[in-house]
Amino acid sequence: MRLIEPGSVLANRYVVEDMLAETGHAESWRAFDQVLARSVVLQLVASSSPYAERLLATAKRASRVTDPRILQVLDAVDDGGLTYVVREWVSGQSLTVLLAEGPLPARRAAWLLRELADALAQAHALGVAHGCLDPDVVVTTSGSGVKIVGLATLAVLSDLDQEADPERADTVALGRLLYACLTARWPGPDSRVLPPAPTERGRYLHPRQVRAGVPRSLDELCDRILSPAPRSGEPLTTAAQVKDALTHILAGDRSSASSATQTLSEPAAEMGVPTATDVRPALLPADDDALPAPTPSGATSETAGSRLPFRLIVAAVAVLVTGTALLAYLVGHHGVPQGTSSEAAPRSPSTPAPTLRRIQIQGATSFDPYPGSGDENPALVPLAIDGDPTTAWQTLPYLNYPALGNLKDGVGLVLDLGAAHDVSRVAVELQGSPTSLQLRAAPASAAVAPANSAQQYRLLASRRGAGTSVVFRLQPQVSTRFLLVWLTSLPPDGTNAYRGRISEIKVFG
User: 3-state SS of 289-347?
Assistant: First the structure.
């Protein structure tokens, strides 16, 4: 018999609508909060249940964790008949559903696990563990974000033996989730959500033994988390260590995509791995660095050499003709290419173009100081530096006025270059128009990104009413570790609403 029925109203506020699941000894329902006019999730047990007191206690502890990647606890109530926890509602797909279609692309798996590890590290710092982490409790949202369901409360409602070290158990679960993302198999004792991982002599096979083309770096990371005696480095025993390792792997992959070592972006089609047309696009797709095309198998080196001068001449003529036509088009239609900063200096045709080098962005965070909330859609920030212009970090929607609803001066992204660099150019790709934005820089001596105000960053250049592509050219170069891309006016996003989107940022020195 169910504890409650659709149409019931709890606390004169929550209208019960649909049953979602029976998890452990609790029922989960979707309800409508009449006060705040939004959907919520109710997780409830009878007040007489031996689990009721522990449910309330753990919910109160979990409510201290406000990381946006963890489903928030909004309320915890005992009305004498029912004990229930109220959580935010989010639309999305569980990781179980995604993996039923097959393994994830390596980069997407690495990014997703880094987000999970970072969120759990924040919870562990407050003394709160999940304790029951598997693909069923990981939800990917429509905005390409990720949410963890049931922090702390799911564990107390299950009949699983309580771990002596729940934070360590969460770390092991992160390793299992990474393994599952790479292979669509579950390397754990409870394989109810996915097919079990294959074993040999009582030990789980490594991901690279299960599926061809798994990057060695991620295979070794699984080993360092799951094996008591890893063969490829020191054991990783905390969520923070897993987050740091994945951050390093993702950063290294972006900077070494053309090296001889297999990278996360390598399709490895020759190894039997599905190509890009066979799998969903990764949230963190490949860099645009490409390996040289091989010599056709039917041509000998002598034949290729004899044809090289002629091919070079044809290529040079084609480039010259195309360049001339493109220049004529740009001058005839726009005068100068769209997105060029007003600070760009003219260059004589006889002056050689400067050689630019790409500066790898080591990290990025959303920047929303007072009177803002302190952070804005942090889970989406990696999409602004992932090399894929089709994905984007986006602001919250603002009503009535493009200048962020006249609520604050701006919102943006802080880029961490890892160390002070001489920056000469920053390219920003946007979605929607018009957008007004500024490029600002922290002092060269800053070892930590300023966090209190955009005014702590020196204004380098600005554009009003920009289109979807902006290039800031800095003369002279600016030495800094931290750059701030600051949005001050946003493009329309529906009726009477405005929202900014940054799809890609590249920095050059």
Answer: CCCCCCCCCCCCHHHHHHHHHHHHHHHHHHHHHHHHHHHHHHHHHCCCCCCECCCCCCC
